[in-house]
UniProtKB/TrEMBL annotation:
Protein name: DivIVA domain-containing protein
Lineage: Bacteria, Bacillati, Actinomycetota, Actinomycetes, Micromonosporales
Domain of life, per lineage: Bacteria
Length: 106
């Protein structure tokens, strides 16, 4: 039986070479565009640009948290990879920490 499971994936990033807040924001915008492109259109983003922190939230219909989390992380990693591929003159942003947790219904 599938239920709606609310998830949040928290990530902090580093830039190599150093990037600006505007470049990080553009990178996150591209990640969101890539999520939309692969059909994951229900993701919300919260970010702290100076801290290079992003939290991606969504609701997944799945049998359990592990299945929901695995599917979401697969899509998120695909979008992250697509956002960083062959983008000349952009700094490379890569996760330095991540944490996925289940959110309780409001």
């Amino acid at each position: 039986m599938k239920t709606e499971i609310r998830l949040a994936a928290e990530m902090t990033f580093f830039a190599d070479p150093d990037g600006t807040d505007e470049q990080f924001e553009a990178f996150l915008d591209e990640v969101m565009e890539q999520l939309n492109a692969i059909g994951r259109e229900d993701v919300d983003l919260a970010a702290r640009l100076p801290d290079r922190y992003a939290e991606f939230e969504t609701t997944v219909e799945a049998a359990d948290f592990n299945i929901a989390g695995a599917g979401f992380m697969m899509d998120l990693r695909t979008a992250l990879h697509a956002a960083g591929c062959n983008t000349a003159d952009w700094p490379r942003f890569a996760p330095s920490h991540q944490h996925v947790r289940e959110l309780q219904a409001a």
